Amino acid sequence: MRTCGATPGGADLAGVDLVNQTVIQGAVLRGGVSDGVPNGSPVDNAYVRLLDLNGEFTAEVPTNLEGQFRFFAAPGLWTVVVLAHGAREEVKVQAIKGTPVDLIIHI
Amino acid sequence: MSRATSLVSTDWVLDNLTNKSVVFVEVDEDTTLYEKGHIEGAITFHWREDLQDGLIRDLISKEKFEALLSKSGISNDSTVVLYGGNNNWFATYAFWYFKIYGHQDVRLIDGGRKLWELKGLPLVSEVPARTASRYVAKERDNSIRAFRDQVIASIGIKNIVDVRSPAEFSGELAAPAHLPQEGGQIKGHIPGAKNIPWSKAANEDGTFRSNEELSDLYKAAGVDFAKETIAYCRIGERSAFSWFVLHELLDLQNVTNYDGSWTEYGSLVGVPVAVGA
Lengths: 107, 277
Known about the structure:
The structure holds 2 protein chains of 2 kinds. Chain A is mostly beta strands. In chain A, 0% of the residues lie in helices and 49% in strands. In chain A, strand 6 and strand 7 form a beta hairpin. Chain B has 2 domains: 3-140, Oxidized Rhodanese, domain 1; 143-265, Oxidized Rhodanese, domain 1, CATH 3.40.250. Chain B is built from 11 helices and 9 strands. Chain B has helices at 3-6, 10-15, 33-36, 62-71, 85-100, 112-118, 148-154, 166-170, 211-220, 238-249, 261-265; strands at residues 7-8, 22-28, 43-46, 79-83, 106-109, 159-162, 194-195, 229-232, 255-257. In chain B, helix 5 crosses helix 10. Chain A binds chain B through residues 20-21, 44-45, 47, 49-50, 52, 56-62, 65, 70-74, 81, 83-86, and chain B through 30, 33, 36, 85-87, 114, 117-120, 165-167, 172-173, 175-181, 197, 199-200, 204-205.
């Protein structure tokens, strides 16, 4: 998959109440390179964990067929952990209300 | 009950894939997971369509449970082995459900669907055709279920364990962070409840921590094992996970799951509520 769309990672946000929700989302890709344009194969059987500021587990979701995931969090610092067969990646993010965090995570 | 009788490993599953007395059942929060692939021979129960009454907020009736299991080809002497996504949340809820209706031999795959996938073990798309049975359930065993009036009367007396995330406990969030923020009418927790998130009982790969670690976890948080314990969360699934830990793995009696949980308690008029850590 290699796209140049405006939404780099997560699923379409149409219908999501971005005024009141703090969204952290993205896509997990296997292979490819982190050159700012999403590329690689979607990982549809990864598990994505959201850890709070203290590293405490808050939530976990499986990726969808496009390798995408989404959390409804609260504003603040979070760690996103991706687990997949033979892979583990961590990304720290700052979430704010109104502007979704959209990630591309290569494994 | 104990870890040895309630929990099976992925290796045990591989050794028993063709065992006719074993029925594997996948129960997920994300009900599309089964269609993406499942353990060979496994059937699935839909947590809402199959396991919720639909009209009133309650478990399905004994007759409906019998019909569900009969249609699924599960017999009274079947070994039912449950697993699912989300670290077995809904699989433990189904486990509790099977115990409510008195099924003799029900077990859980340690690590559930996540460990199976992280190990790269095979999933298939074929839905098995099972021959219908004539299942006879027992009357509900309410000794493992708590109702709201019991919960209110237990404040300051029994252990009340809130297994939600710290942000839900404190009143910052109304639901887990991967779900839209809806739940009870208000946010907070039951006064005196100990916040021991379900996740602390699980390793990152979805397996349960050792009994020694689990025992230390609850004791360190102030749970007195000599007293009765009520576990609750938002809708009763995560608390079924912690109920499984306390009642099945640690073999403690007098542990109940308050399946009404915060969506009920947080909507009640006039009951005490606390906020903050």
